[in-house]
């Protein structure tokens, strides 16, 4: 974990930006010794957002399963697609 004072963000932005890109980790910024913010590269931010979106999808699927929503296997879906395609004359 990297912690830097807010003055470093102002005075050493390029070094902090490079460190964030190279490490892929967030850099915690303090103000007067207290936690104040977090700086991270755009790549790390986008990867984190993808992971959080994926986790939200898993959580929603699990909630639906617990609520009794019917679930379908890949084989079930393949069979349904075949039925739809075979039922239509092109």
Write out key terms for the chains shown:
4 helices; 3 strands; single chain; 90 residues; alpha+beta; 3-stranded mixed β-sheet
- Estimate what percentage of residues fall within beta strands: 15-25%
The major beta sheet can be summarized as: 3 strands, mixed
Work out the number of β strands.
Answer: 3
The residue-averaged pLDDT reads 92
Helix-strand pattern, N to C? EHHEEHH
Q: Summarize the amount of helix as a percent range.
A: 55-70%
List segments where confidence is low: pLDDT < 50 over at least 5 consecutive residues: none
- The strands making up the biggest β-sheet line up spatially as 1-2-3
Global Rg:
24 Å
By secondary-structure content and strand pairing, the structural class works out as alpha+beta
| Overall 3D form | elongated
Helical stretch tally: 4
Question: Roughly how many Å apart are the termini?
Answer: 60 Å
Question: In summary, what is this structure?
Answer:
With 90 residues, the chain is α+β, with helices and mostly antiparallel strands. The chain has helices at 6-11, 13-23, 42-66, 74-86, and strands spanning 2-5, 27-31, 34-39. The radius of gyration is 24 Å and the shape is elongated.
Structural notes for this entry:
The protein has 90 residues and is α+β, with helices and mostly antiparallel strands. Helices cover 61% and strands 17% of the residues. The protein has four helices and three strands. It has a three-stranded mixed sheet with strand order 1-2-3. A hairpin with a 2-residue loop joins strand 2 and strand 3. The radius of gyration is 24 Å and the shape is elongated. The mean pLDDT is 92.
């Amino acid at each position: 974990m990297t912690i830097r004072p807010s003055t470093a963000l102002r005075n050493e932005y390029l070094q902090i930006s490079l460190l964030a890109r190279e490490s892929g980790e967030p850099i915690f910024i303090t103000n007067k010794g207290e936690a104040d913010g977090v700086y991270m590269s755009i790549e790390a931010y986008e990867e984190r957002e993808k992971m959080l979106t994926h986790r939200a999808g898993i959580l929603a699927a699990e909630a639906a399963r617990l609520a009794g929503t019917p679930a379908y296997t890949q084989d079930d879906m393949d069979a349904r697609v075949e039925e739809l395609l075979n039922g239509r004359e092109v």
